[in-house]
Amino acid sequence: MLQMSQSVENYLKAIYDLERLGDAVQTGALAEALTVAPASVSGMVPRLVDAGLIQRGAYRGVRLTETGREAAVQVIRRHRILETYLTQVLGWGWDTVHEEAERLEHAASDRLIERMAEALDNPRYDPHGAPIPTVEGKIEQQELVPMSEVAVGGLGEVRLVSDDDPSRLRYVASLGFQVGARFEVLDVKPFDGPVTVRRLERDAAPQVIGFELAQSLLSLALRREVATC
Fold it and tell me: What are phi and psi of 226, to 5 degrees?
């Protein structure tokens, strides 16, 4: 039986993330996500198949089995609970917790994670807005759009910011667009041009956000009467 090691958990979590794109996960994409050589992936895949954690998909890609998906989701739960505990209880910045949680998620016991969750009053989201899976493995599905796709004159609320780049998180925070920030889109330049937005705060000035950054700020579209109440 394959031991649920740090390496195995990282593979399952990476496959889970890549599967959300809809297609079977290819070796090259998995190697890139894990920053390992394709040969390493080719060696691990048969072991995960034999353990019943993944199955071969179309065009030599792979998909998680139900068992593999359950295991991946539990790793994600540990990671997001740890990030939340580090920020809310220990006062770490949202730009510093991802790497620390990556290390701790493989060592923390389920008992410890659940004690942390109880101490946090069972939070629904991590510091970056990602939904925290329940103990039963359910994950809330959010209907979000990038800030860059909110129409001119439209209102939105930042709900999710990717945690894979600490410098980007620091920059987003400096602009005031952390999770929960509400904004109005004033202008969108064509051909992947910048987006001009204004936070819905008194005396807030318009700000120009680059297209790539605006794409990374996943937002919930708001009705005007909801945003201003």
Answer: -75, -40
Q: Classify strands 155-161 and 182-188 as parallel, antiparallel or unpaired.
A: antiparallel
What's the sign of the alpha-carbon dihedral 44, 47, 49, 54?
negative
Phi/psi for 11 (5° steps) reads -65, -45
The confidence band for 184, taking pLDDT boundaries of 50, 70 and 90, is very high
- In-domain check, residue 96: no
Q: How far, in Å, CA of 219 to CA of 144, rounded?
A: 5
- What's the CA gap between 105 and 82, in Å, rounded? 7
Q: Which domain holds residue 54?
A: 6-64
Q: pTM for this one?
A: 0.90
Question: Residue 198 is part of a domain; what is its CATH number?
Answer: 2.30.30.90
Q: Say yes or no to pLDDT of 168 above 60.
A: yes
